[in-house]
Design brief:
alpha/beta; 5-stranded mixed barrel
Length: about 375
């Protein structure tokens, strides 16, 4: 069993720390996205928890964070002993393929046989031991030349996640639970999601991938040859600052925006090179305020979760979640499943049932020209 003194010698963890988390507006903003916030009440931000979770597997010096230029100072402030060569700054967001493949290409040039794993900065996992067991199996399968994803065993017919249809066992030494991937499925309707969960053949797609860096980049070259070539061109000069800047200025605006699920995972599955390791550990991508409420209420819908210490919250027969970042007094009387996010320049009021629609509010604000609050 892995412990804090036994990191995997050939493994490097990549943490894409991007995105805005628009469904968590107005708490999450472009300058302070959700991974920089403590959403669990643990005292650590989501990014800090992700690093702590990965450190026993890779070691602190073998964790690379890919983030935006605007977030560099906050990331360096939150993560101690982060080596300069282990932070990759994106000129602007280009989706997960660029973030992960660029990091993999940089690391392959430094260490040709390296195995890389990508883990989002904004996920919540309580069972660190179970998580590490699954990653350990995935690394073993990656050594055999497979791309491996971690699939989460569903606990309910959720419609907010994509699904992975798993096939038979792969029979890989060191990865006894690894299964072959039949296909990826987009977010289903509630009736279809119930069928998936009842069948036992489907797992939630958590977007975590482990692979030898060279294998991942070869798959990208098969499906997106132009993008793969551009990424290799950037990686070739990344460790030479005087050459990196001009290359980024010239190449970055041309990079295609595409999720790694489409550029690597799905093509690899079609070629029989993708495996999935099922994970029974608790997992949440904290995609909206309904998820935040569940994290704090532990499944009890009659409770009110309160985050922040800005103001005073008075509640009588109320449930849901309140995020208080102003000095106002917030009073809630007889309201169920309420969501209130109070910041100095914006106020959101909705319900946990409608929490996914906050992204539409953000889109409307952007169209209205009030982007200063985003």
């Amino acid at each position: 069993m892995l412990n804090r003194q036994q990191p995997l010698d050939d493994f490097y963890a990549i943490i894409p720390a991007g995105g805005v988390g628009s469904r968590l507006w107005p708490m999450s903003r472009a300058e302070a996205p959700k991974f920089l916030h403590d959403l669990t009440g643990s005292g650590n931000t989501l990014l800090q928890a992700t690093v702590e979770r990965l450190e026993p597997l890779a070691g602190r010096q073998r964790i690379m964070i890919v983030t935006g230029r605007a977030h560099r100072s906050a990331v360096e402030e939150q993560i101690d002993e982060l080596a300069d060569h282990n932070i990759v700054l994106e000129a602007d967001p280009r989706d997960s393929t660029v973030a992960i493949a660029l990091a993999a290409a940089i690391l392959r040039r430094r260490e040709p046989d390296v195995i890389v794993g990508s883990f989002a900065a904004d996920h919540v996992i309580d069972d660190w031991r179970g998580f590490r067991r699954c990653v350990s199996e995935a690394v073993a399968a990656a050594r055999d030349g497979f791309i491996v994803t971690l699939g989460i065993t569903p606990t309910e017919p959720a419609i907010g996640f994509g699904y992975i249809k798993a096939d038979g066992l792969a029979d890989i030494e060191g990865a006894p639970s690894a299964r072959r991937v039949d296909s990826f499925v987009e977010k289903p309707t509630i009736d279809v999601a119930k069928e998936y969960v009842e069948s036992g053949d489907y797992l939630w797609n958590a977007g975590m991938f482990i692979s030898r860096a060279d294998v991942l980049l070869e798959e990208l070259a098969h499906s997106e040859p132009e993008l793969a070539e551009q990424i290799e061109e950037l990686a070739a000069v990344w460790d030479e600052p005087e050459k990196r800047g001009p290359a980024v200025d010239r190449i970055w605006p041309q990079l295609k925006k595409i999720a790694i699920d489409y550029s690597v995972a799905e093509p690899a599955a079609a070629r029989g090179k993708l495996l999935v390791v099922p994970g029974d550990f608790d997992w949440d991508d904290v995609g909206d305020f309904s998820s935040v409420a569940k994290l704090h209420n532990h499944g009890r819908r009659d409770r009110l979760a309160i985050l922040g210490d800005g103001g005073t919250v008075l509640a009588d027969s109320a449930s849901g979640v309140v995020v208080s970042q102003s000095k106002r007094i917030i009073s809630l009387v007889g309201v169920k499943d309420i969501v209130v996010v109070d910041t100095p320049d914006a106020l959101l009021v909705t319900t946990t049932e409608q929490a996914q629609r906050v992204k539409q509010v953000v889109d409307a604000i952007r169209r209205s020209g009030h982007s200063g609050v985003l």
